[in-house]
Write a structure and sequence with these properties.
This protein is of the alpha+beta class. It is 52% helix and 13% strand. It folds into two domains: 108 residues, no CATH class; 170 residues, YojJ-like (1. It contains ten helices and eight strands.
């Protein structure tokens, strides 16, 4: 028994001795890719795809073990042509993954401090204050609103569909834009660098519109679609009940107040925090709903 334990320990030690620094780097990179791959496909159609692939692999192993030649041949054909079929069927999901990779900022890896000037940060803070004040008033009067904070992904296509304003945000400006029956009240306001760049903008439809609850109206659907196609932060005020919501990365979070909305916007817009890094932050009265069937 003692000899068996010593042999086992010696074998483990030999394995550790044979590990090189390149092996550690290799394992670390692979672990990182697997972890973020799981995060990207979580709660999407691709999650069901992975389950299906694992089921087919398991069935293939079983067919080899039981010597089921016909099933083994059919499954081989599926694996040979399946990769091309997956790319065609799940093109929207792959596009979203590549866009997220492309939105990764090189400045995240720089050793120097943020290059934004104090004046730019001050303008963004004043803009957030104006948005939060406006959203609170619009919520109280149940006036629908759709406000987009542009981040890394530029929204030129959406800006071209609206009216260029290029003005300083204020409660009065937002009140005039979203006042019912005015020419711009149905579209979205796009904010860039603390300035209202355009209003009355049209937004893309969500990629998985059939999964969104029917209770949500066109503004909420447009907000989800915009957040799926970019890293923008989208603020929505419901004209039915005045509920304040925020769309980010395809998810809709409802039940915001003026204070916790301001905290979230400062974290996301000024500090450029990702949703995953700020999940620990608790907002009083926050209600999260992904609005899937």
């Amino acid at each position: 028994m003692f000899e068996f334990i010593s042999d086992a320990l010696a074998a483990v030690w030999n394995v550790f001795k044979s590990i090189r620094i390149t092996d550690i780097i290799d394992i670390a990179i692979l672990s990182y890719l697997i972890f973020h791959g799981i995060k990207l496909i979580r709660e999407t159609r691709a999650q069901q795809l992975v389950k299906g692939i694992l089921f087919l692999i398991g069935f293939y192993v079983l067919s080899v073990f039981l010597k089921l030649q016909t099933m083994r041949y059919i499954l081989k054909l599926c694996f040979n042509w399946g990769f091309l079929a997956i790319i065609i069927i799940f093109q929207p999901e792959f596009r979203r993954i590549l866009e997220k990779m492309g939105r990764t900022r090189l400045t995240q890896f720089q050793l120097f401090a943020n290059n934004e000037s104090e004046s730019e940060l001050s303008a963004e803070r004043q803009c957030i204050d104006a948005v939060c004040e406006s959203v609170q008033e619009l919520s109280a009067s149940k006036t629908g609103a759709l406000i987009i904070f542009e981040r890394t992904t530029k929204l030129g296509e959406q800006i071209d569909t609206g009216t260029i304003l290029n003005c300083t945000p204020s409660v009065a400006v937002f009140g005039n834009i979203f006042f019912p029956n005015t020419p711009l009240h149905d579209g979205a306001v796009i904010i860039r660098d603390g300035i209202i760049l355009a209003a009355g903008c049209f937004l893309p439809k969500p990629q998985k519109e059939e999964l969104i609850a029917k209770q949500l109206g066109s503004r909420h659907r447009a907000a989800i679609g915009m957040s799926e196609n970019s890293d923008a932060i989208v603020v929505v005020v419901s004209e039915e009940n005045g509920t304040i919501s925020v769309a980010e990365n395809g998810d809709l979070t409802r039940g915001f107040t003026k204070d916790n909305l301001k905290k979230l916007l400062i974290d996301r817009v000024i500090h450029n925090e990702d949703a995953d890094s700020a999940k620990e932050t608790s907002f009083a009265g926050r209600v999260i709903s992904k609005w899937k069937k």
